[in-house]
Amino acid sequence: MKKQFRMSLFILMASISFSAVAQDKSDWKNGVPEGCTTITVGKMATADGSVITSHTDDSHRTRAWMNVVPAKKHDKGNKFELFERSACDSLAMPTYQHKKIGEIDQVEKTYQFLNTAYPCINEKQLAIGESTFGGHEELFSTECLIDCQRLQQLMLERCSSAREAISLADDLLKKYGWRDYGECLTIADKKEVWHFEVVGPGKGKVGAVWVAQRVPNDHISVNANASTIKEIDLKNPDYFMASANIFDIAKENGWWKEGETFRWNYAYAPESRLSLASRRREWRVLSMAAPSLNLDANDKDFPFSVKPDEKITMNKLVEIFKDYYEGTPYNFVKNIKQADKDGNEVISPFANPFMPYDMNKLFRVNGGWDELGERTIARWYTMYATIIQCRDWLPDEVGGIVWLAQDNVASSIYIPVYSGSTDLAESYKVKARTLGYTRTSAWWAFNRLGTLSAQRWGDMRHDIDKVFVPLQKNYFEEQAEIDEQFMSLSKKKRVEFLTNRTIQLGNEVVEKAWEIGDGIWTKYDEKF
């Protein structure tokens, strides 16, 4: 009996030990992150001179609700709490739970920020995108305290520029450590945008290893779940920064030898460069921006950034983020065909680039992501997406714009949330995944629309585009007028003006998402 008890205790302790040393991977697929895509653009590469970062929160678990956290003054002795994220399956839908693991000293004053699942902009036009790339498993350390979401919040609460945010990260991570897998944060301000890639220090250690590379002002860049920073030149701090231990840790672990060319991505995340799910997206983004380069979709490495053939517009970025390789050999549903009314072979209207993985088996789909098909840029499991403009010729309140979409961007629309907006439409703040399906939620309006339209995508997408494409164009074109109106107002009225527009457009697109969904359900009855 005692022996049986000791064995049960051993198994229990072993399971506890394992769960303690392994960061949650419940949002990964086939052992690799299938998460987010982030695109960055320098100010000389954009049509209007804005600096751009972005993010698709591609996840099966992260929260869909969001809110604006106001600027605050804190009393001496106040603390910033730190949490560990883990899977939670006891609510209406899969989500995360956050267990407190520590705290650090709070600063006297913190900035206002937009509190998306990965906090994304503050009142000073500091903006952040994100993409997980993994890296060496043995670098993860439970001795560390700061994860990706908390680091982004700390940057936004305390910093006003990208370089200041990177410096803060270095200071905090030296002291408290990086408790996460390899992440790329794309950090933009009114002047420039950087890619900050960071991994843990190794089991039992406190700290982090990181590198940062600036996107040239006339270039566009991308991170799609793979490390992209290669050779670095720390003698050129205008383009490169790194932690002091970057070479030592690589050497200690046998990932790099003195005298060899040091390539960050092959030292710290070589497996990420094997992923076609990542490389295909890199190819597609860079090729859509600069088709003249004739990049090979099957290459192992692409340039960190490229000069676009034409200045990048907001409409072009929306086009890229909505992409699923249609018109290329990598449209993985291109062989789902039928005869049209004239007897010609065409892609079936039921061919759906947003099929749940189980449907791939039904249609014998295979591709660069094996049985998962192809990892396209637009995804059916996107929670929300951002394209963020930082504009230095305008006051911060209106200069920073988060163009915010809900759910799959291929069937969604972006609305503006300004650095100065102090609130969102109520439906954006509903904790939808906790509650389950509800007509009170913005996320559910777009999730239902995306799910419905995917059932007969070849036809239904046109019903969505008929409404959203011209509306999206109007929102972008109206922004110049909004800027002018803002500048004509007294300072007391400016923030209210921006907040009202954010709420108004939020309510408008949510109402239209419900209307389009209801129309599809009626129009295609018995056809899907």
TrEMBL record:
Give the UniProt family note.
Belongs to the peptidase C69 family.
Extract the signal peptide range.
1-22
Enzyme class per UniProt: hydrolase
Biological process according to GO: proteolysis
Q: What is its EC number?
A: 3.4.-.-
The protein here is known as Dipeptidase
- Sorted alphabetically, which keywords does the UniProt record give? Dipeptidase, Hydrolase, Protease, Signal
Can you name one GO molecular function term for this protein? Answer: cysteine-type exopeptidase activity
Q: Which reaction does it catalyse?
A: an L-aminoacyl-L-amino acid + H2O = 2 an L-alpha-amino acid
Check the record and name the InterPro entries matching this protein: Peptidase_C69
Task: Supply the source organism's classification.
Answer: Bacteria, Pseudomonadati, Bacteroidota, Bacteroidia, Marinilabiliales
- Which Pfam families does this entry report, sorted A to Z? Peptidase_C69
Q: Which organism is it from?
A: Labilibaculum euxinus
List the PANTHER family.
LD30995P (PTHR12994:SF17), SECERNIN (PTHR12994)
